[in-house]
Design goal:
Layout: H1 16-19, E1 27-35, H2 38-51, E2 66-71, H3 73-79, H4 83-86, H5 91-95, H6 101-104, E3 126-132, H7 135-149, E4 155-164, H8 221-224, E5 228-237, H9 239-248, H10 253-264, H11 282-285, H12 311-315, E6 332-338, E7 355-362, H13 366-377, E8 402-404, E9 411-413, E10 420-430, H14 433-440
Antiparallel strand pairs: 1-3, 1-4, 2-3, 5-7, 5-10, 6-7, 8-9
Length: about 450
């Protein structure tokens, strides 16, 4: 009996930033541009096609370093992509993140009216990002990309955000970051959970069959095929408030770390509660071959070990049947820290801006990023938690507490404030290399 056919992807046409896990440690930067003159915008696309690293370049000239180029819907319009073509893109992409803010929970302090300019505005057209193992190689990567946008008077740089790995290789709340990565058929890159079968390429790369057998791609084919959608979000973290919450809801330092683990679903070392339920295991947390290989429903259906409402169980319920078909909502997630660390033990904010630049990559904005954000992060109905929100990343308003399942009595924590606020974001399209060339050759 024949097995499943081997999936062949055109890796030399796919941007490496779509499928490659972030290096550890890392340095990264995001550069945003506005297109003022169509001809120069097209020249930017043509040059970018030569600067972007393809997925076939497993070892680039600068090692684990790559440059990616993404375009917003207003950017595609500024380049002169015909309306008939724009109308074939995902409707969420055409609306833009700012227009989707209320549905995403970006209200109040996180609302677009409070976003960092020019994020969420019509002035963001092109996003160039670079990632490298260290600042020296990052500078080299930016230098490699600079000829793409340098000396183009009709292209204006409007924003920049530099990111870097903290010395602890954690994000600002103290948790090890970059732990989970799904396997994608045809990429040759293994997933972080060896129990999870590789996902269909069409879940992340347009123009290929997805988990439902459908093929999604904007038209014409040369523009849509081998591209992807990317969600960029700047998330400010209230580190001192998070530390105070842990301290006020615990009895001693050991209990403080347990509460932190129950909110996240992992100890701050990266060791999951599912595999280290009673105490932290730093060796496990540092082992990429072990720290992500587990299920929830098979071993812990009631959440006595890993609370059903914790962050990682919401963001990826794994084998949960009540969450629908989880594989339809998987994404590639990447986070990059920005801003100075708050010194250890400090419990008052110092006024510095610090947080994460988050990137989510997939082929289905609606049933991937937006579904997870609205149904799993900012609602709890899917696991019986009514309207309870994610304790770490949700849009909490200080009215609802957090429950830690425990025998004989559950443990109730105080109402959760909002620890993470949105400072801005964009829905983008990551064109293939051939699509970048096509955009560069457009004519009115």
């Amino acid at each position: 009996m024949n097995g499943p056919a081997e999936v062949k992807l055109e890796l030399d046409d796919i941007q490496r930033g779509v499928i490659s896990p972030r290096p550890t440690p890392y340095a990264a930067t995001y550069l945003l541009f506005r297109i003022d003159e169509r001809a120069d915008g097209r020249e930017l696309m043509r040059r970018a096609s030569a600067a972007v690293t393809s997925a076939a370049e497993s070892v680039s000239p600068l090692g684990e370093t790559w440059v990616s180029v993404a375009v917003t819907c207003t950017g595609l319009a500024a380049l002169g992509v015909p309306r008939a073509s724009l109308d074939t893109f995902a409707w969420e992409f055409r609306q833009g993140m700012a227009a989707r803010a209320r549905a995403l929970g970006d209200v109040g302090e996180s609302g677009p009216e409070n976003w960092e300019a020019p994020l969420g505005s019509p002035d963001v057209h092109v996003v160039i990002s670079a990632v490298a193992p260290d600042p020296f190689l990052l500078d080299a990567a930016v230098d490699r990309a600079r000829p793409a946008y340098d000396r183009l008077p009709g292209v204006t740089a409007v924003w920049r955000q530099d990111c870097y790995a903290l010395p602890t290789e954690t994000e600002h709340f103290g948790y090890r970051d970059g732990v989970s990565h799904p396997a994608v058929e045809g990429t040759g890159i293994p997933g972080s959970n060896t129990r999870e079968a590789p996902l269909k390429a069409g879940e992340f790369i347009l123009g290929h069959p997805d988990e439902l057998g459908g093929v999604q791609a904007p038209r014409p084919d040369v523009l849509g095929r081998n591209g992807s959608y990317a969600v960029f979000r700047k998330l400010h973290q209230r580190v001192a408030e998070f530390r105070r919450y842990l301290k006020e809801n615990s009895v001693d330092p050991a209990d403080e770390e347990l509460v932190a683990a129950k909110l996240m679903g992992r100890w701050r070392s990266g060791a999951p509660l599912a595999l280290a339920p009673l105490h932290d295991d730093p060796a496990l947390g540092a082992d990429p071959l072990r720290r992500n290989t587990f299920w929830y429903e098979q071993d812990d259906p009631a959440g006595f070990t890993t609370p059903r409402g914790c962050h990682i169980r919401r963001a990826n319920p794994r084998d949960a049947s009540v969450a629908g078909e989880v594989r339809l909502h998987r994404m590639i997630r990447r986070g990059a820290v920005y801003g100075p660390p708050l010194p250890h033990g400090v419990l008052e904010e110092d006024g510095a801006d610090r947080g994460l630049m988050f990137a989510f990559i997939g082929a289905h904005l609606g049933r991937q990023f937006e579904f997870v954000q609205t149904e799993w992060i900012n609602d709890g109905v899917f696991f019986g938690g009514e309207d309870a929100k994610d304790p770490v990343a949700g849009s909490a308003d200080g009215t609802a507490g957090y429950t830690i399942p425990r025998r004989p009595l559950r443990r109730r924590l105080a109402p959760l404030p909002r620890f993470v606020t949105t400072r801005g974001g964009e829905y983008c399209f990551l064109p293939s290399l051939s699509a970048l060339r096509w955009l560069g050759e457009l004519h009115d």
